[in-house]
Amino acid sequence: MTTDTPHTLVHLTDSGLAVTADDDVRGREVVDRNGDEVGTVDDLVVDPEEKKVRFLQVGSGGFLGLGERKQLIPVDAIVRIDEKVHIAQDRGHVAGAPAYDPDLVPAGEYYEELYGYYGYPPFWAAGYAYPPYPFYL
């Protein structure tokens, strides 16, 4: 598999793009398959060319933003969205996800590792099918 993603991904807040209020999950709590809190959606990582959300940026821990850890979770992991965002993994799995340091790991390589960690094919892989986002019930 190649580590060259076809597009540069950016945070929604830096993209100039917008989502409708009904589709915006920023600020919502993320819970795991057991209903345990994982964190809060801080931002969405989007593909500005295809106008698709690729990852949730989830913040957890810390106090008043200090010491908070940021994790990226592929949108493929979302199983349901209601007043919360429900994901298929447990919070221990999310906590063990690869950390990203742009000075050490190229973004494409990190994204590929992250998709592999969560068990999903990367969005640039042949045959990839974008999940029907959002998944409201």
UniProtKB/TrEMBL annotation:
Q: Which SUPFAM superfamilies match?
A: PRC-barrel domain (SSF50346)
Might you name a Gene Ontology BP term for this protein?
photosynthesis, light reaction
Q: Which GO terms describe its cellular component?
A: plasma membrane light-harvesting complex
Segments forming domain PRC-barrel = 22-90
Secretion signal span = none
Identify the domain of life.
Answer: Bacteria
Query: What Gene3D superfamilies is this protein classified in?
Result: Photosynthetic Reaction Center, subunit H, domain 2 (3.90.50.10)
Tell me what this protein is called. Sporulation protein YlmC, PRC-barrel domain family
